[in-house]
User: What shape does this take?
Amino acid sequence: MLSRDFADPQRHANWRKLPAFSDQVIAEVFARLSARGVFCQVNTVLMPSNADDLPGFPGLPFWPALDLWHLIPVKGAMAKGWTEESRGRFAATAAELGGAPGPGPTLISPLPSGFAELPLAEIRGSRPTEAAVRGRSCTVELAQLYIDASGHVLPCNSIAWEQRRTIGFGNLHEEPAEAILARRSRALESSHNSARLGCHACDPLNFAANSN
Ligand code: SF4
Assistant: This one.
């Protein structure tokens, strides 16, 4: 799994305060992993500052080897720069990128879940209210499953550490995988996002909350 927030490697390095890595080297590593059947994923933090940069991603040399591209909308102060106009532009870009034919990864993001259609009046502060998320589910959790180093099985890798027990489906050190997967299936069937108050590493509601 690779974090990549800007298509331009130097821009990404500046943003992450890391040295720039060669895209060609990354492409060679991903190609080797993919050839061995390893699932390859890129995560991108979606911000007002990189939303217009997304069309550059499919041109990256490692794109054909990827399976999944997870867009994670920022919350709080970093999300304040959204405007209705930039939201609309992003939505069109995401639809175009999501519908693009392969080779390349499947795009997943919480946004198509309907969160962003919520009336702003329903949103309180920087956290989704229980009423706002009841009955809704994030499309990311339908498409992926994440196991952290402690054995917690989670809907994605953007869950705050202290919430892993409440949002996770179970821990592989404590229960058999079958029991955890059965719990995940039940949770997805019953719109388990009604308990999604702790899903805070990514807060799609802020995408709407900060747009005015
Ligand atoms: S943090 Fe929660 S809302 Fe965000 S992508 Fe992950 S599962 Fe979906």
